[in-house]
Amino acid sequence: xxxxxxxxxxxxxxxxxxxxxxxxxxxxxxxxxxxxxxxxxxxxxxxxxxxxxxxxxxxxxxxxxxxxxxxxxxxxxxxxxxxxxxxxxxxxxxxxxxxxxxxxxxxxxxxxxxxxxxxxxxxxxxxxxxxxxxxxxxxxxxxxxxxxxxxxxxxxxxxxxxxxxxxxxxxxxxxxxxxxxxxxxxxxxxxxxxxxxxxxxxxxxxxxxxxxxxxxxxxxxxxxxxxxxxxxxxxxxxxxxxxxxxxxxxxxxxxxxxxxxxxxxxxxxxxxxxxxxxxxxxxxxxxxxxxxxxxxxxxxxxxxxxxxxxxxxxxxxxxxxxxxxxxxxxxxxxxxxxxxxxxxxxxxxxxxxxxxxxxxxxxxxxxxxxxxxxxxxxxxxxxxxxxxxxxxxxxxxxxxxxxxxxxxxxxxxxxxxxxxxxxxxxxxxxxxxxxxxxxxxxxxxxxxxxxxxxxxxxxxxxxxxxxxxxxxxxxxxxxxxxxxxxxxxxxxxxxxxxxxxxxxxxxxxxxxxxxxxxxxxxxxxxxxxxxxxxxxxxxxxxxxxxxxxxxxxxxxxxxxxxxxxxxxxxxxxxxxxxxxx
Length: 581
Description:
The structure is a single chain. This protein has a two-stranded antiparallel sheet with strand order 1-2. The longest helix is centred in the first third of the chain and has 63 residues, at about 60-125. It is about 85% helix and about 0% strand. Helix 5 (about 130-165) packs antiparallel against helix 6 (about 175-200), helix 7 (about 205-230) packs across helix 10 (about 285-340) and helix 15 packs antiparallel against helix 16. The protein has 3 domains: about 1-195, Methane Monooxygenase Hydroxylase, Chain G, domain 1; about 315-420, Methane Monooxygenase Hydroxylase, Chain G, domain 1 (Up-down Bundle); about 445-580, Methane Monooxygenase Hydroxylase, Chain G, domain 1, CATH 1.20.58. A hairpin with a 3-residue loop joins strand 1 and strand 2 (about 255). The protein has helices at about 1-10, 20-40, 40-55, 60-125, 130-165, 175-200, 205-230, 235-250, 260-280, 285-340, 345-385, 390-445, 455-470, 475-490, 495-550, 555-580; strands spanning about 250, 255. The protein is mainly α.
C-alpha cells in the first residue's frame, strides 16, 4: 500500500498542466482515470482496517498492537493527503483548460478582428464615383454589418471566460486582464469603424433601394409583357387561376409579397423625390430611371388591365365549363345506373323499382333545373367572352346531349317499368287460375264411381256444384284474357310471352270443361246402371215370391201367361219411374 501511495504522490506532484487545449484535455482524461483507480482502492483500505482490528482482538503484544495502529494511522493520513492532492490537481487542470481555451479563443478573435479591419481599409480606398462599384459596396457592407452583429456573441464569450479566470485567481490573471482589455479595445474600434463606414455609405442606402425597386418593377413588366403578348387564358379553371396568380405575383426585396399597381409606383416616385432633394450628385440618375419607369408603366398599365379583365372573364367561363362538365358526368352516371337495372320479377319488386325510379326522376329534375340555369348563363358568357365561345359551345352541347340522353333513357325505363308492372299483374292473375284448374282437374280425376243409386245421385249433385264454380270463374278467366290481349295489342315488349300464357290459359279452361263433361257423362251412365241394378233386384224378389204359385199344376197355360204379363208391366213401371227421376 505504501509503494502504491509513493507512486501516486509522485504522479500528483507533477507540474505539467498542458500548453494547449488538446494537451490539457488529455491530462484531464488521465487524471479522471487516476481518480477512478484511487476510488477503487477504498475497498483495500477498508480491508486493511478490518485486519488491524482483528489483530487487536487476538491479544497480540502491546508494543506490536501500538505499532500496527501507528502504521494504520499513517496510511490513512497519507491516503487522505493524496485525495486532497488529487482534488487540487483536478481544479488546477480545469483552470488550466479554461486558460487554454481563453488563449485560443482570444487569438482567433484578435485574428478575425484584424482581418475585418483590413477589409474595411481596403474597401475605403475604392472609388465611390462609379455607380456599379457603389452598389456593390453597399450590398457588401450590409452583409458585413450582419456578420459583425452575429460575431458579437463570440467576443462576449471570450471576455466572460477571462473574467472567470480572474475570479478564480489564476496565476496569470494579470496577463488575462491585459489580453481581455486589448480584445475589448480592438472590438470597440472595429464597431466604431463599421459605424463610421456605415455613416459614409448610409446616404446611399435609399439610392440603392430606389434602384432595386425600379429594376424589380421593370423586370416584372418585362415578364408580364410576355404573358400579355401570348394572351393565354388557360386550358381549364385551375390553369386560368394559376395564370391570374402568376400575373399578380411580385416579390420585392425586404418587403414580402406585394402587387405592382398604381400605389406601388406612387411609393417609388415619392422615394425618388426625396432622393432628388437629399442627393444632388445622383439627381440625374434618379430622374432618368424614374422617368424611364413611369414611361414603361404608362404604356404597360392599360394592356395589363385589359389582360387581367380578359383573364378574370375567362376564369368565370372556365368555372362555368367545369359546372357543365360536372353536370354531364352526373347525367352519364345516372344513365349507367339505369342501364344496369332489371325490370323486376314480380309485382312487389316492380313496385319497388318504380318507387326508386321516381326518386331518380326527382334527381333528374334537379339536374334539369341546374342545366337550364347553366344554359342561360352560357348564352350570356358567349356574348361577353367571344374568345371562349367555341369551347363553351362545345361543352354546352356535350352537356345537353348527355342530359337529353338521360331524359330519354329515364322515359323509356319508366314506360318499361309500367309495362313490366302490367305483365306481372297479368301473371299474378293468371297463376291462381291455372293452379285452380289443376286442382279441380286433379280432384275430378281422382274421384271414383258411385256404388249405389244414392251415392250416384250425390256425386251428380256435387259435380253440378263444380260446374257452378267453373261458371262463376268464367268472368275471371275473361278478365285475365282481356288484359293479356290488351297488352298484346298495345305492343308490349313481352307480347310473345303473353301470347303463350293466354294460349296456356285457354287450353287449361278448355281442358277443364272437357274433363267436366267426361265426368258428367260417366256419372249419368253410372246412375242408369244403378237404376237397372235396382230393377233387376226387384224383379228377382217378385219372381221369388211367385215361385210357389207357379208350381201349382192346376193353373193352366192361361194363368202362366197372366203372370208373365204382370211381370212385364211391373218392369215397365219401374223403368218409367227411373226415367222420370
